Amino acid sequence: MEKADSSRRASRNQPNPLPVLAILAKDVGELASKEKEIFSPILKRWHPFAAGVAVATLHVCYGNELKQFVMSITELTPDAVQILRAADKLEKDLVQIAVEDSVDCDDGGKAIIREMPPFEAEGAIANMVKDWIKMRIDRLKEWVDRNLQQEVWNPQANEGGFAPSAVEVLRIIDETLDAFFLLPIPMHPALLPDLMSGLDRCLQYYVSKAKSGCGSRNTYVPTMPALTRCTTATKLWKKKDKTLNTKRNSQVATANGDDSFGVLQLCVRINTFQRIRTELEFLEKRIITLLRNSESAHVEDFSNGLGKKFEISPAACVEGIQQLSEAVGYRIVFHDLSPVLWDGLYIGEPSSSRIEPFLQELEKNLTIISNTVNERVRTRVIADIMRASFAGFLLVLLAGGPSRIFTQQDSQFIEDDFKSLKDIFWANGDGLPMDVINKYSTTVRDVLPLFRSDTENLIERFRRSTLETYGSSAKSRLPLPPTSGQWNPTEPNTLLRVLCYRNDEAASKFLKKTYNLPKKL
User: Is the dihedral of CA 227, 231, 235, 236 positive or negative?
Assistant: First the structure.
């Protein structure tokens, strides 16, 4: 009775059954070695491949136990990995004994090996690690969804000018990499690409979700009004107030930007994407260090960068910065400063509604942007604001609606205004480089001389350009050239628009006769 009680207590105090299989693998290996060294040389008198038969039998017996264990595994644990690694080592040892014992066999021992179905221990480990990776990636994606919904893209609320959620997601990725390399597995280099791919997709998802709803340059550009011809200056001046009010209302209706995505909020997103780009470079260097310290790494694992770099998320950051930088520029110019640009510049009498109010507001915005945006992307953002300003200036001149008219003499102060606009970005040498300013001002510089040309010259250039574009089909009647938005001094639509806004009787008669354009919308 006492023996039975003692047996039951011993049973209850047995160690976890998982490592028992690892111990069993070691015992089977030792038994196989003894079989080869002690018994097989004697048994060879009756069977030429006694050792091979013995290890094949041991392989099958242990394989049956291992199979039941693998079917019971639900998650990756150190004990499970320990058992599978022990099984893998045992299998290699048994196969080696069988091969050595079958050297003189006609088939080289293939028949014996066929009786030893593979344990596939490494495959089982790999599958468990892949499940572990999937679980981590799924959790990270859920975290991104949850935290981006709560993110406040506010530079005052976010120290450093970037989102705390980005710092946290990078910390989680760092911890996940640490945890992966701490796994007691023999194949870190082989499975690292799976982990990197998942982390890469999560970061791309973060960037995509963070910029969702922020709009782009096309979100803020107003719809061009229909073409009209100029009425007399006197009639236009009397109708100035009515036309201006109508235009303001239409601009409010066509502005598609959501106020929850203001300029400062867009700037914090830009800073955030830049922060992620920078941190990814450090993470990639750290991954190489972790890989070098891994016992399973070999020299060839460092021969290329495949599977050790973030492939799609850096590109997503670059694309996101580009999109949001353009959105900042076009939102400032066409949305925030619409009252002083689209609804104010050259309305009515051009000499009384020049560019100074727009420049004053623009300068305030540039100061705020310069103090908010990360210095590594600051030049790009300011350059995009400049591009949007130049585009807005041209749009006022070529598609500003019937509330704007220009005489040939107005060309001088138009050119002076454009010079003042460029000077804002030059800032006496403290702003953008002059070559950048000249690069983006090319289109405006090419188009402005058209406003100095006399009406007869413009009409002749328009006829010639249209005939060159449409050929003989345009001889009987000049077709109305479509609006491409690609302004060019030799492009028919650009020339036509200069005529439409020319405060000149000859221009008005030509447009009436050729296209029957109305004087008002």
Answer: positive
Predicted TM-score of the model (pTM): 0.80
Cβ proximity of 243 and 402 under 8 Å: yes
Residue 348 forms beta bridges with which residues? 404
404: three-class secondary structure by DSSP? strand
The DSSP bridge partners found for residue 310 are none
The dihedrals phi and psi of 14, each to the nearest 5 degrees, come to -65, 150
d(CA 397, CA 345): 9
Secondary structure (DSSP) of 474-506: GSSS---PPP-S---TTSHHHHHHHHHTB--HH
Span 433-445, pLDDT tens digits: 999 999 999 999 9
Domain chopping of the chain, boundaries: 1-119
Dihedral of the alpha carbons of 280, 284, 287, 288, in degrees to the nearest 10: -170
Distance from C-alpha of 497 to C-alpha of 512, rounded to nearest angstrom:
14
Q: How far apart are CA 111 and CA 105, in angstroms?
A: 9
Phi, psi of 348 (to 5 degrees): 70, -120
State yes or no: pLDDT of 26 exceeds 90: no
Taking alpha carbons only, the member of 250, 222, 245 closest to residue 335 is: 222
DSSP conformational letter for 36: I
Cβ neighbours, 10 Å, residue 213: 11
